[in-house]
Structure formats: C-alpha cells, structure tokens
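Data deposition worksheet. Section B asks for the primary sequence of the deposited chain exactly as it was used as input, without tags or linkers unless they were present during the calculation. Section C holds the resulting structure in token form. Section D is free text for depositor observations; keep each observation to a single sentence. Incomplete worksheets are returned to the depositor.
Section A, Depositor: J.P.
Section B:
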Amino acid sequence: MQPYHLAKIIEWSPAGKLRSRKRMQKIIYLLQSAGCAAFDADFILHHYGPYSQDVAALTDQMVSGGLLLEKEEPNQSSGSVYSYRLSEAAKNSLEKFEGEETGKRMAAEMEAFRDSAVELLKADLKEVEYAATVIYFYRQRRDWDDAAGKTAKFKKIDRSNPALQRALKLARQFAN
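Section C:
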C-alpha cells in the first residue's frame, strides 16, 4: 500500500475528513476483501475487528511527513477519536501525481472502488466494524452463518441484532 492509496480514501471522505482510525482500518480491510489490490496490508483480529499495523504505520508516517493533518477529538465512549485531512501540500502532490503516467494508472485502479469506498465512508461505523469482522471469520471457513455467529460471540452481541444483520449483508457485498 502506498501513501497515494490512503490519500485517495481521505480525499473521498465527506468534506475531505475521515473520522476515526477504526473506520480507516475497516474500510481498507473491506476494500481489500472486495479485490482492491492496492491495499495489500496484513490484518489480524484485534479488539474492534481486523486491524493492520501496516495501515497504522503508514498513517503515522504520513502524519509525521505533513501529508495528513491529524486532529484529536473527545469521544464519550473511548476518550478520544482521531480525524484526518489531507494537508495542502498533499492535495497539491496528489493532483500533480495523477497528471503523471504512473499516477493516472493508479488513479484508474482506485476509481473502480470509489463508489464502494464512498458507501463505506457514509455507513454506520458499528455496521462497518461488524461487516469487517464477519468477513474475517468468513475467510476461515467460507460459511456465512458461522461467521455471523462468531462475530456475535466476539462482539458480545445477540446473533439477531439488527446491526449485525445489516453488517452481514454489507459483508456479503464486499467479500471477494
């Protein structure tokens, strides 16, 4: 995964702002699951579902390099949540890069996943989190019912939870 790919997700975010590291992780996992080869991160199962140190490290690298602007905001349930915007330098670099041959090719590859990314950026975060977790378990046995059951147990929710049912539908949409 290149900084370009992460920058595109943030650029596509509503008002150019991606709110929460969790959403970033889950969107990248779901797009990777849908076949977006640009996202070649390794994921493990963590507290909130699939988590990638690769994604976290790239985010930190882009913040340190001044490409991403990170803002900490208070959150009642978890203390803080971080949001991300592209810096002006990043926006300019992105535009310049997409005018070059390599950038045009990478932009075309990402464009195929734009609608899916935008859908996930607008979706309820809990459902995105559950959907990513369902896919994580689905990949182990290729059984949707088993994956939903394991997700319910892992998340400590009832199997009939409406958010889990919507997440299962979302997961099926993104599982490749």
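Section D:
The chain has two domains: 1-122, 124-176.
The two ends are 19 Å apart (CA to CA).
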